[in-house]
Automatic annotation (TrEMBL):
Record domain Ataxin-10: where: 516-604
InterPro entries with a match to the protein in the record: ARM-like, ARM-type_fold, Ataxin-10/CTR86_families, Ataxin-10_domain
Keywords for the protein's UniProt record, in alphabetical order: Cell cycle, Cell division
Region (Disordered): 342-378, 470-503
Biased composition (Polar residues): 350-362, 369-378
Highest taxon of source: Eukaryota
Protein name: Ataxin-10 homolog
The UniProt record lists the keyword Cell division: yes
GO biological process: cell division
């Protein structure tokens, strides 16, 4: 006999011996007999070690016939589940059952790894494994850290069963996305307090989605898909601040990878709609999705193909991410404008539903040496604050950043959207945005300028840790509704420094609306670049003074001044009419030695530099 044949014979002999040892231990197993569990676990763990180290052992044990391992494994899973279903087990017995469950799961995990035939045979035990996962993700089980290794091992066993096996992944994924609500083990696993269990579950999902656009679409479109997406987004959101090298950080990276598959499949518009709640301008899950999308677009060198592509189905209209973002931006900006106008007392507007407003003042009242009565009037007008406004503005910042990234990268690449059926090039991202309008007919550019104006009026400006009382821009109305004249402020006296409580309150308000002004004015600058029509529209809607008033340092809008100056440059570039508007504007204030903006009194020459 050749040396190779002798090795095969010895391998088969050793394999049969291992399977026979497992069978004998399983046949004689009685959970009520002390020591039986530990003996079975010892035999299984010994075999698991062999399987992990030797790929040939996995083939040999999976194909063994004298005896066959698969009836034995099925019996072990059935016995394990039966033991867990017994009512009120003693603590010692419960601990032994957990030990057994982890050992059977580890053996299964190692046996099926990278062996398709073993995976197919092990799938028959999926229902038993799923029921055990359900048991170990109950509230009482998740309160005991000793259960975490068991849950983790069960999840890894399921993951290895479908890894790189398209047929089994299709089978498992379609099953898990159509289960009744109370049987959705994925949502229960996502909620585990153990980061390593969450990581294992995310890997299971990634393995199911691997190299299959159809399975990714099921995640959004299947009966239970949106519910699983909600749980996934919740868990990813809870991991945002995790240290990159920690277990929580690793879990975040894998969860983020799942959501990137959704982005790449062009399914964000559809998922965003499914996450909506009636009569709510934005939901926490939509905000989390926007955060992931913003991060993805920033990390991609060429995000515009994703922005202008969508899944194509027979009879379905194209759904472009860019269109969805533009529509979402206008919806959020319109809502923000309404809330800001109510807070500032501008015009008449229907108040929001009960419970969404609170009486408070965002800007500290103006203080004058004369203690005039109008300061109290201004403060009283800032009383109807929509409590959803900070969340709306947070989402508005994210959408603005996404649109800016898409526009800039498209300009850098000189790309356009895919050609139409007639062979004509579709509009660029900038063109799509500029041509959009709200449901009330307000154009995108006009909506952007108006939102900037209201935000700047409403949110306190903090410069070098101090509250800066902004003077009214020339040609605009102040909070009392008075029109100012160019170069003067109608004799307003200089303001005193705000008190410490007012300063802290103003800082809290500014922090709640951080980055809004910076990102909005940056987008305006991008749209106005080399576009005469946009430049003219900015002038016609009074946007030039608005942008000029943003050329300042703002602690909660880093680089606001630089972005505003660049936007102003793009608005004026080659446009004599816009340049004439700037020439006609005289400064209304100056920075004193304490970096506090002081308004000029009537009659003071306007020759000092406005910084």
């Amino acid at each position: 006999m050749s040396e190779h044949g002798q090795q095969n014979q010895e391998g088969a002999s050793g394999t049969n011996a291992a399977v026979l040892a497992i069978q004998n231990a399983a046949d004689s197993f009685d959970p009520d007999v002390p020591g039986q569990v530990h003996e079975l676990v010892r035999v299984l763990d010994q075999a698991s070690t062999l399987l992990a180290a030797d790929e040939h052992a996995r083939y040999n044990i999976g194909n063994a016939t004298s005896p066959c391992i698969w009836p034995v494994l099925g019996h072990l899973w059935a016995q394990t589940l039966h033991g867990h279903m017994l009512p009120d087990p003693e603590p010692e017995q419960a601990a032994e059952l957990s030990l057994l469950c982890a050992s059977v799961a580890k053996f299964t995990r190692n046996l099926v790894a990278a062996v398709p035939r073993n995976q197919e045979r092990a799938l028959s035990n999926e229902l038993l494994i799923r029921k055990l996962v359900h048991h170990y993700t109950s509230y009482s089980a998740t309160q005991d850290p000793a259960s975490y290794p068991v849950t983790r091992m069960l999840s890894q066993a399921l993951s290895n069963i479908v890894t790189n096996n398209t047929v089994l992944a299709d089978n498992l994924w379609s099953t898990y996305l159509s289960l009744p609500e109370e049987q959705l083990i994925l949502t229960r696993l996502f909620a585990s307090p153990d980061a390593r269990t969450v990581s294992s579950t995310f890997v299971l999902v990634l393995n199911c989605l691997h190299d299959s656009k159809e399975r990714i679409e099921l995640l959004v479109e299947a009966p239970r898909g949106p519910r699983i997406c909600l749980s996934l987004l919740d868990r990813v959101a809870s991991l945002f601040e995790a240290e990159e090298t920690s277990e929580h950080g690793r879990a975040f990276d894998i969860g983020y990878g799942i959501l990137c598959r959704v982005v790449e499949a062009g399914l964000v518009p559809k998922l965003y709609r499914k996450l909506a709640v009636e009569e709510e301008p934005i939901t926490p899950h939509q905000t989390t999705l926007l955060k992931v999308l913003d991060s993805y677009l920033h990390s991609e060198k060429h995000p515009e193909p994703v922005a202008v592509s969508s899944p194509r189905q027979p009879g379905a209209r194209p759904e472009y991410l860019l269109d969805m973002l533009t529509e979402t931006w206008m919806s959020l900006a319109t809502y923000a404008q309404g809330a800001l106008k109510r807070a500032l007392g501008e015009g008449e507007s229907t108040p929001p539903s009960e419970g969404s407003t609170e009486t408070m003042s965002m800007n500290p009242p103006r203080v004058s040496d004369q203690g005039n009565q109008e300061s109290g009037t201004a403060a009283s007008q800032l009383h109807e604050i929509d409590l959803l406004l900070p969340k709306v503005c947070e989402a508005l910042v994210l959408v603005t950043q996404c649109l800016t990234t898409i526009a800039l990268r498209a300009e850098e690449a000189g790309s356009t959207r895919p050609t139409s059926a007639g062979g004509l090039a579709s509009p660029s991202p900038r063109t799509v945005m500029v041509a959009a309008s709200t449901s009330t007919g307000q154009g995108f550019v006009e909506c952007l300028v108006e939102t900037l104006r209201l935000i700047d009026l409403f949110v306190p400006r903090i410069t070098y840790g101090k509250v800066v009382q902004r003077p009214t821009a020339p040609g605009q109305r102040d909070l009392q509704g008075r029109q100012t004249v160019t170069g003067a402020t109608e004799g307003q006296p200089e303001k005193k420094t705000a008190t410490e409580p007012q300063t802290e309150k103003a800082k809290a308000a500014a922090e709640a609306f951080a980055h809004v002004k910076r990102d909005l004015v940056r987008l305006l600058g991008v749209l106005a670049s080399h576009d005469r029509a946009v430049q003219d529209r900015v002038r016609d809607c009074g946007g030039i003074p608005v942008v000029m008033n943003l050329c300042v340092v703002d602690d909660y809008n880093p680089y606001l001044r630089e972005h505003a100056i660049f936007a102003l440059r793009n608005i004026l570039d080659g446009n004599l009419e816009n340049q004439a508007v700037v020439d006609a504007i005289q400064p209304v204030g100056r920075w004193d030695e304490n970096k506090v903006l002081q308004e000029f009194r009537s009659g003071v020459a306007g020759e000092q530099d406005m910084k």
